[in-house]
Amino acid sequence: MKLYQNTVNGLRYMRWSRLRAMTYFVKGVARELRVAPTFFWKLHTEVAFRAFKKKWLRQDSGTSYFDICGAKLPDVSSNQDFKYGLACPVFEDTFLVPAYYGNSYHKALVNTLDSMAMTEGPYGYTDGAFDVTVKKGDVVIDAGAWIGDFSAYAASQGATAYAFEPVNKPFQWLCKTQQLNNTKMGGAKLILLKKV
After folding, report:
1. C-alpha separations of 122 from 30, 100, 176 in Å
2. Would you list the domain boundaries of the chain?
């Protein structure tokens, strides 16, 4: 029943295509039945990433990058782990609300999304006078920044983001994210402090 509910929620709230929802469901059934679970996981991953790439990948002056509502991220297509992370859990946690709900982090929506099979849940919340969202002029510290998805989002909102990432490979991608986002950000910046 949980698998069915997650599939319906993916279609309804996360705006999955029917194909992605179908491969998600089949992946879950295959895992439970122990029938080629790795094959179906890879199939679902490829379907999810293809749809993500089609919607968000851009080309500019020979550079390919993802532009999600003004937040630019390097094209991680060459790396299986990074591309899955970006297309699925990272997109849902960092960009689902800005991309499909107009940055509206109201309590009812956040509670609904938080109850789903998201990795961490939405990165914002509003409830009357209580407002935890990124605004122009804010200073954001992104500790464990990975490739800089949240930092890029914060910079796209007009904040200054300080990004830290201790692991070498994601840090290399984070440097590319910084380059992509500091070209035309006005007063906003994505600042990297030396890798620890």
Report:
1. 29, 12, 24
2. 2-191
